[in-house]
Amino acid sequence: MHPRRRVAGAQLLVALVACVGALGCSRKLWSKLRRVDAGAVAVVPADGAAVPDGGDYAVARVVGEGGAAGEAGAAAASASPSHAVLPAGPPPNLNVILVTVDSLRWDMPWAGYPRPIAPALTALEAKSVDYTHSYAISSYTSMSLGGLLAGKLPGELPRDGFFFGTYHKKNLFFPELLQKAGVHTIGAHAHAYFKDAGFQQGFDKWELVPNLQFDNTTDKNITAPQHEALAEKLLGDPALEADDARFFAWFHFLDPHDQYMSHEPEIASWGRLRRDQYDGEITFTDKYLAKLFAFIASRPYAERTAILVSADHGEGLGEHNHYAHGFELWEMLVRVPLLVYIPGVVPRHVDTPRSALDLAPTICELLGVAPDPGFEGVSLVPEIYGKPAEPRDVLLDLPTTSDSERRRAILHENLKLIAFGNDKYFHLYDLGKDPDELEKIVKGAEYDEMKARYLAFEKTLKDVDPYACLPNVCLNGAYKKALDAGKK
Ligand SMILES: [Zn+2]
């Protein structure tokens, strides 16, 4: 058993001392720590120090374990006559910057992790709507981000079927809608895979950090400094400063991706264990995000620019004997941060689970562009602006590729059902009691109900076969063979 799983409820205080002492805390402990705060509502006066930059609105920090409690708290706080009123919706000239950080786990300092590994992101969280139970669509870059751009599950998207596959041009990616509506669309990334992924559809500008080396098994590039400079160059375009200009920019930072590189002496080492090395990558990336956020704050458009931060997937650090990411849908692989900072919006926690499927319609609405009817997610804008966050099921999809077997999952309330292979077998987990997914349930009323729920969802799927695969060819490791043969 992994030592981090030994923390028991009765040992909470001892464990807290131990984990603050740099051993690392289990997610069970995070849950317990968060429950200590459950229901607490702190309202900062309108003249308080925590008002968002330049904002006129009161700040309500609502911390609650249950979505309903958190939402009720937020409603109560914003309804208070002694506090300013939340704006009804996004301003008509809002810009959106989406920052995705590869392999960024959900258990960051603002979620209870005791090391201050991400001060810039932690400061951003304090002024954001923080989705505490946000899920990537899948567990590795290609599938997660194809789904994010299309607003659909990746198994429904025309794609070649290789592990690091290419998406077909006939996919509709949401930046295409923005581009057609006259929004400037900018992408700059640090992942060499983005060169051939097909993700650039709808972008006026699409740039990669120079001199990236592609390795299909790992990533040894160090990119945050050059990437930040590239982002500044693009965001410094005077065309973006016109009063009637609107833009969407997306930056995918890659350094936390394994292999974890040392950044000494620029960043002090957290230690030699795997988590230590991972933490060093987060700290390094955060340093350059701080620079990027400062640059954005210096621009004339800062007060009408939203910053969204999330990840394409999490990262395994030994849970389920799983390292890095992909191949499975365990919580540490799919649960990710989602911070939505919009100047003037009341920061709070939303604990209702949400999916990155919701980002395509959300970003479209923030930019005043009608979403495609085919988007499968739901815009988060109403709840960002104070409406209750109603529960919805969350769907996870890892289609079969040249190098991986299919996995799908459905989350409903506290329950998560994972379907292995082509529905060969199913495991149910009660995340409320078992957040580390250690005790699979394979029978009983809840299992039957969740399996029926999953099968009903599956009937609504419009799966498409990978187009570059003959039967039993590319889906049996042809990508590896092509690599071995030097063809790719
Ligand atoms: Zn990734």
Overview of this protein structure:
This protein is of the alpha/beta class and 488 residues long. The protein has two domains: 95-387, Alkaline Phosphatase, subunit A, CATH 3.40.720; 395-484, Arylsulfatase, C-terminal domain, CATH 3.30.1120. The protein is built from 13 helices and 17 strands. The chain has helices at 12-23, 27-36, 67-79, 119-126, 141-150, 174-180, 224-235, 274-298, 331-334, 359-366, 381-384, 445-460, 478-484; strands spanning 41-44, 59-62, 95-101, 129-135, 184-189, 205-208, 247-253, 305-310, 316-317, 323-324, 335-341, 348-350, 354-355, 394-398, 407-412, 415-420, 425-430. The strands form four sheets. Strands 3, 4, 5, 6, 7, 8, 11, 12 and 13 form a nine-stranded mixed β-sheet that branches. Strands 14-15-16-17 form a four-stranded antiparallel β-sheet, with helices on one face. Helix 7 (224-235) packs parallel to helix 8 (274-298). It is globular and about 60 Å long. The relative contact order is 0.16. Bound molecules: zinc ion. Zinc ion binds at residues 102-103, 140-141, 257, 312-313. Zinc ion is lined by residues 102-103, 140-141, 257, 312-313.
